[in-house]
Amino acid sequence: MIIVTGAAGFIGSQLIHKLNEENYNYIIAVDKFDNEIKNKNLEGLKIKEKVDRDNLMEWLDVNYEEVEFIYHIGAKTDTTLFDIELLERLNTNYTKEVWKRSVKYQIPMVYASSAATYGLGEHGYDDDENHISELKPLNPYGQSKQDFDVWALAQKEKPFFWAGLKFFNVYGPNEYHKGRMASVIWHAYNQINKTGEMKLFRSHNPEFKDGEQQRDFVYVKDVVDVCYWLMHHRTNSGIYNLGSGKARTFLDLTKAVFAAMGKEENISFIDTPEDIRDKYQYFTEANMEKLRSIGYSKKFHELEDGVNKYVQGHLSKLSL
């Protein structure tokens, strides 16, 4: 059996889809399952059992002998949330409990970290573990992920295989429930569909022109391919970046959405909301050399290709 936490969420549900494609059908899906909209992500997937998030540790203590692998993808991912206690409980401390059982029962695990740990990028975007403790996240969500990464590296007892994946800007199917935290592709498609135009955040940094803020956008199918590969290559534990390795502008992204929709470009700018303005990353780009160095060789989608697949293969077929 394979455990996937955050099973009903964006990346978790896509990972289960990938596992099913590869004929792994004994999936233990872990989530709260209290969001009917999000639960639609699980429709049609092969799952052996659903376990409430709050009951996972007790379930593991009973069923550990049957578990082959743990994917701990679930987390509170709202970068605008400032409830530090909640983030510490659900992201940092919960992951520690999963880790401890992974050690105790000798179950390999992959867990979700985040590029939010890099903050302004003053130390670059290199996943060298010797420098991870120096990173300065810009928000409590990023700090909750950073706190666990630092804790994990400091542990004397580690799972016989483990990998922490610093997800960059992931986009793709099954993110429709995420609201404000959904990708810009999702928001662009909806806005263009309704109004014929897209409003991007204006730059409040003199080093970047409007719309030329850059992020490392990575297609969710590439993310789950890496997760799946790691289950079969359990020799190099550690923390790894997981992005496309290529920063692109929000203008590039928006133009790709217009093109995929077959519509004429109509782009304007609005002020970045004040509650996130001073916590805003203007540039992210994953250094992917470390993952490549352990043998991962599959190419990542170019932004235009991923956006086209997402828009034409999924968004255009939804009733929004």
From TrEMBL:
Written domain comment of the UniProt record: Contains a large N-terminal NADP-binding domain, and a smaller C-terminal substrate-binding domain.
Gene Ontology terms, MF aspect: ADP-glyceromanno-heptose 6-epimerase activity; NADP binding
Chain sites annotated for binding substrate: N169, R180, H187, F201, R202, S203, H204, R215, Y280
Active site: Y141, K178
Higher taxonomy: Bacteria, Pseudomonadati, Bacteroidota, Cytophagia, Cytophagales
General function of this protein: Catalyzes the interconversion between ADP-D-glycero-beta-D-manno-heptose and ADP-L-glycero-beta-D-manno-heptose via an epimerization at carbon 6 of the heptose.
EC number: 5.1.3.20
Any one GO BP annotation for this protein: carbohydrate metabolic process
Residues binding NADP(+), per UniProt: F10, I11, D31, K32, K38, R53, I73, G74, A75, K76, T77, K145, V170, K178
Keyword flag NADP: yes
A Pfam short name: Epimerase
Enzyme class: isomerase
Official protein name in the record: ADP-L-glycero-D-manno-heptose-6-epimerase
Cofactor note: Binds 1 NADP(+) per subunit.
Catalytic activity annotation: ADP-D-glycero-beta-D-manno-heptose = ADP-L-glycero-beta-D-manno-heptose
Organism (species): Fulvivirga sediminis
Encoding gene (name): rfaD
Cofactor(s) needed for function: NADP(+)
